[in-house]
Amino acid sequence: MTATASGLEGVVVADTELSDVDGAAGRLVIAGRDVESLAGAATFEDVFSRLVYAGKRAVSLGEARRRAWQLLPSLGDALRASDGMDALRASIARVVDGEPEEIAGAMATFAAAWSRTRDGRPPVAPDPALGHAADCLRMIRGEAAPSSLVRALDAYLVTVADHGMNASTFVARVIASTGSDMTSSVTGAIGALKGPLHGGAPGPVLDMLDAIGAPERAEAWIRAEIAAGRRIMGMGHRIYRVRDPRAAVLEREIQKLEGAGVGGGRLALARAVEKAAERVLAERHPERPLRANVEFYTAVLLEAVGLPRAAFSPTFAVSRVAGWCAHVVEQRRVGRLIRPSSRYVGAPGADGRGRLSDSP
Ligand code: COA
């Protein structure tokens, strides 16, 4: 009998041209470029084009943001949900024309409108002439953002656009493999991204930095959390056995911001907490390197560009929708249903002959 592949760790379920994660070397290639050279050099729209259209079509998401804005009155209560991912799941489900750009434009417009509504402020209409990062920031903040912040957000959107067979991407591909539509794939993926073990970590990372408050308190705080059986958010990764390369990319962007006198000045605290967490987790799990993942510095960067922490996970979705759509397109080319097996460990059948999966 085949052993159960718990968590599907190490199971290869697709060939992909979209991104490659080398967990031992700490290397990430997105659409043929190392993430370190892509972030800061390419815009989100460039990366969207590379992923979804192999770079063969110029992508502009402004008109799609504008069309999504026109859908707002028909969304009813969808954007009134208290959780941003619930709001995105309900509102993206209403995008009937499931073209990749439509969904990506809608993700940004809806995420911003939700964030404003939650804060008791009126949503801000998109400006189709702006780049995606600039308009995302503008729609959330209610005013144009300085170019340094726009560049930092763009670098973030590029950095997290795709990442191998992560849980939400797998969900998108499973749904696509049934012949279902793009909207359904992305809606399902949003549900997977929402979980704290996947895309829901950056808000809690900031809560942790708030709770710790000063570098010298980091170690004791972390020890207490571990002793209470809780996980340290922003640490550990299923694939990486070294530091997540995206953490370094985002750290670099935050450093640039702080160097320019912008941002919350959190970097020193974040670095101290990361070091303390590494130390404590290494003692606890000497067999398993648990280092910072992308979410750790996502929290610091998104705070520095002025986003409210409730909008962190929705902003992750604003980026990752590129990968989801690209994987759906790729899965359609494969054209085969994804349908794994399970091992029955329940009660034997009524005839008492034991479990079917025990049979030779
Ligand atoms: N804090 C404390 N302990 C951790 C940990 C963390 N962040 N991440 C893993 N561990 C521990 C687990 O408790 C487990 O120990 P145990 O066997 O004594 O219970 C061991 O390390 C192995 O963990 P496992 O659950 O097998 O790892 P995984 O590959 O399934 O999980 C994550 C990977 C990302 C889900 C996990 O590291 C985690 O929960 N991180 C915090 C959430 C987070 O930052 N998510 C964003 C990911 S990008």
Describe the SSE topology.
Blueprint: E1 19-22, E2 27-30, E3 33-34, H1 35-38, H2 44-53, H3 62-71, H4 84-92, H5 100-118, H6 132-141, H7 147-159, H8 167-177, H9 182-193, H10 202-212, H11 218-227, H12 245-259, H13 267-284, H14 294-304, H15 312-334
Antiparallel strand pairs: 1-2, 2-3
Helix pairs in contact: 2-15, 3-5, 4-5, 4-9, 5-6, 5-15, 6-7, 7-12, 7-14, 8-9, 8-15, 9-15, 10-14, 11-13, 12-14
The structure holds coenzyme A.
Coenzyme A (COA) binds next to helix 14.
Structural description of this entry:
With 360 residues, the chain is mostly helical. It contains 15 helices and three strands. Strands 1-2-3 form a three-stranded antiparallel beta sheet. Strand 1 and strand 2 form a beta hairpin. Helix 4 (84-92) runs antiparallel to helix 9 (182-193), helix 10 packs across helix 14 and helix 12 (245-259) packs parallel to helix 14 (294-304). The longest helix is centred in the C-terminal third of the chain and has 23 residues, at 312-334. The chain starts with 18 loop residues before the first strand and ends in a 26-residue tail after the last helix. The model has no long low-confidence stretch (mean pLDDT 94). Coenzyme A binds next to helix 14.
